[in-house]
Amino acid sequence: MRFLVEDPLTKLARKLRLMGFDTEICSRNDIRKSIENRDVFLTKSKKAMEIASKFGIRPYLIKSENWRSQLKSVIQRFQIDLDDVHFLCRCSKCNGLLEEASPGDAAMVPEYVALTAEKLYKCNRCGQLYWNGSHVEHMKWMNGIVGKSGDNAEENKL
Asked: In this predicted model, what pLDDT tens digit does every residue of 133-149 receive, in sequence order?
């Protein structure tokens, strides 16, 4: 599933990227230019939903202000399961793909990370480095949400 996310939901977009989803961020003015190759448009605005609908992308209205509730709602609404999730394969900053970093990249991280991290990953687009840090706890929480089923989504589709 490929998401287009309106910029007020940037934190949600970054979490979807950490889960491995191809997720682009746009402003309301850029919806038309950004919908190519996107399946779903996530927004907090009914007006933006109407704009997206006119261009043939499936909109979904996010009502919560909390990223955890937002993510849970998206997971439930689009019936995302563990087979759909691929942690640490996309950059949360730019949506680029992550590759295993070279040994020379270890010089770019804090010393304790270079000494303790089993693997480093590098974004092929922006060069951002990733390792099993605090975001792993968020991934465990997201994994738990994906693994649960049967809850009703608290958000609504137009």
From this structure: 766 667 777 777 787 64
Distances 77 to 10, 106, 142, 150, 154 between C-alpha atoms, Å: 19, 40, 15, 11, 9
Task: Tell me the pairing of strands 58-61 and 22-26.
Answer: unpaired
Give the whole-angstrom CA distance, residue 86 versus residue 49: 28
Measured on CA atoms in the order 42, 129, 89, 33, is the torsion positive or negative? positive
Q: Please check whether residue 71 is in contact with residue 15, taking contact to mean a CB–CB distance below 8 angstroms.
A: yes
Reported pTM: 0.85
Domains along the sequence of the chain with CATH: 2-89+134-147 (3.40.50), 98-130 (no CATH)
